[in-house]
Amino acid sequence: MAQSWRKKPNILVTGTPGTGKTTMSSALAEATQLRHVNVGELVRQKNLHDGWDQEFDCYVINEDLVCDELEDMMEEGGVIVDYHGCDFFPERWFDRVVVLQTDNTVLYDRLARRGYTGAKLSNNVECEIFQTILEEAKSSYAEDIVVSTKSDTVEDITRNVAELADWVSSWQPTSM
Fold first, then answer.
1. Which of this chain's residues are annotated to bind ATP (predicted)?
2. Residue 150 CB neighbour total at 10 angstroms
3. Would you say 158 is a known binding-site residue?
């Protein structure tokens, strides 16, 4: 549910790694003048983690520290949060949750080009096959704010940015 005191909406852009979250979020921030927060970068910059996961070659984020870091900014509004997980963010933070989805073959190639191998590669492709992030979003947020959208091509990203920019420009806070 939108929070009545925010003048601008908050958007969560989520999806399996490699679906284009950061690319789309950056373009959307430019188109709407909203602030883009890449949670992965924030975790690295502010050490909001509990160490390094050798198997998956990534930081183990500390969800409480991340939420504490974002709290004031999110209450103010006008933020695009970009992260592959979504179930730990407070529901009240977001007015729209966008789940990017990518064809498995396209995703596999993107992740392989990034150097993903072994368990990290297969785990992420399986996550997309089973629509894990979409299910997580649907179970964590109000049904009417969760949208899934295709993100296979540059044209898809351009269309998604245009549609979301239109949504942002017409967004009105609702009373509680």
1. 18, 20-23, 114
2. 15
3. no
Q: State yes or no: 22 annotated in a binding site.
A: yes
What are the boundaries of each domain within the chain?
11-169
pLDDT digits (tens, 9 = 90+) for 52-64: 999 888 999 999 9
pLDDT (tens digit per residue) in 102-111 = 999 999 999 9
Q: Does CATH place domain 11-169 in 3.40.50.300?
A: yes
Give the pLDDT band (50/70/90) at residue 4. low
- Asked whether residue 21 is marked as a ligand-binding residue, the answer is yes
Contact present, 155 and 161 (Cβ < 8 Å) = no
Residues 100, 93: Cα–Cα separation, whole Å: 19
Q: Are 12 and 84 in contact (CB under 8 A)?
A: no
